[in-house]
Design brief:
The protein is mainly beta. It has one domain: Methylamine Dehydrogenase, Chain H, CATH 2.130.10. 0% of the residues lie in helices and 46% in strands. Strands 10-11-12-13 form a four-stranded antiparallel sheet, with no helix packed on it. The radius of gyration is 15 Å and the shape is globular.
Length: 149
């Protein structure tokens, strides 16, 4: 993508803003963390989360939508989002979630061995290497707290 600020390799957008990653991996967005090494950006309705090459995560925006509370440390490989929460998958297959608890920001399954996460607007589902599925998020739509094999 090309814009007034130069060439960007990826972008994420909210209803009211855009956050592209330049080719040299710094972020172009008000409130974005300083520095470089970012490889991807994800968004909820009013927050962003950015993944760095070392697997660490930075988040900013409305805290009710996951703009704060990102997990510390490194080794994360991907971030997923609902409209108000984020979930991050770590190299060992463990999951961390943050944001609105009724939209998947809490209640993520414990343990390791998860290989993928999928999301709707209000819930997450995680696939484990053994073929089992765990879900969490909005209970009013029966999208959370199930585990089947």
């Amino acid at each position: 993508m090309r814009g007034r600020g130069g060439l960007a390799s990826r972008a994420a957008c909210l209803s009211s803003s855009l956050a592209p990653v330049r080719l040299h991996r710094d972020l172009l967005n008000w409130g974005a963390p300083a520095g470089s090494g970012f490889t991807a950006i994800y968004s909820t309705g009013y927050a962003f989360a950015a993944l760095k090459a070392d697997g660490s995560i930075s988040a900013w925006g409305d805290s009710r939508y996951g703009g704060s509370g990102a997990p510390a440390g490194s080794g994360f490989t991907a971030i997923y989002s609902t409209e108000q929460a984020f979930a991050a998958l770590k190299e060992d297959g463990s999951i961390s979630a943050w944001g609105d608890s009724s939209r998947g920001g809490s209640g993520a399954p414990t343990g390791s061995g998860f290989t993928a996460i999928y999301s709707t607007n209000t819930a997450f589902a995680a696939l484990k290497a053994d073929g089992s599925i765990s879900g969490w998020g909005d209970s009013s739509r029966r999208e959370n707290s199930f585990s089947e094999r």
